[in-house]
Amino acid sequence: MDKADFISRFGGVFEHSPFIAERAFDAGAVIEPLTASGVHAALVEKFRAASHDDRLGVLRAHPDLAGKLAIAGGLTEDSAKEQAGAGLDRLSPEEHARFTALNTAYTAKFGFPFIIAVKGLTKDDILAAFETRIDNSRETEFATACAQVEKIARLRLESLIPENS
Fold it and tell me: What fold characterizes domain 63-156?
């Protein structure tokens, strides 16, 4: 697979951050045959090696959960599927108001949106995590958000590449 094809296929695994895939490819970290675990390892290595500001940019590229982009239909296809799978597209007005208030408070405190790998979670699970994590320190929450981004990337890769291909 050439560089353009690799970036086209995997550049969105880390939300709106194709530089991760580009750096992994350029470093020769991508080994064929491609597997979800192999590509994930290569991408995560470059994500972790990125500067704090680059990683913060990746965090900030993520949409708010059940936020304005979701309502306006402006999410990436992956984000829309992930949020819908957790029921975030079917919130009551009260639930939506709670998510909006938490999104606003969280972003004001940490400078990036609340990020959680929603696959397998319910809206109640997500709200509980939101309410717990908002009390974290900035350093703890930055690390937690980065770990969640890596988990989201893994889940996305598993849908793109069968592990036994």
Answer: UraD-like (1.10.3330)
Confidence of residue 40 (pLDDT cuts 50, 70, 90): very high
User: What are the Cα distances from residue 82, in Å, to 64, 76, 139?
Assistant: 12, 10, 26
Task: Taking the CA atoms of 127, 68, 90 and 93 in sequence, report the sign of the dihedral they define.
Answer: positive
Q: Say how many C-beta atoms besides its own lie within 10 A of residue 140's C-beta.
A: 11
Residues 6+ apart with CB under 8 A from 59: 112, 113, 115, 142, 145, 146, 149
**Residue pair 142/110 in contact by the 8 Å Cβ criterion:** yes
Active site residue 96: no
What confidence tens digit (pLDDT) does each residue in 109-153 have?
999 999 999 888 988 999 999 999 999 999 999 999 999 999 999
Q: Where are the domains of the chain?
A: 3-57, 63-156
Q: Which of 40, 52, 62, 96 is catalytic?
A: 62
- Determine the residue type at 28: G
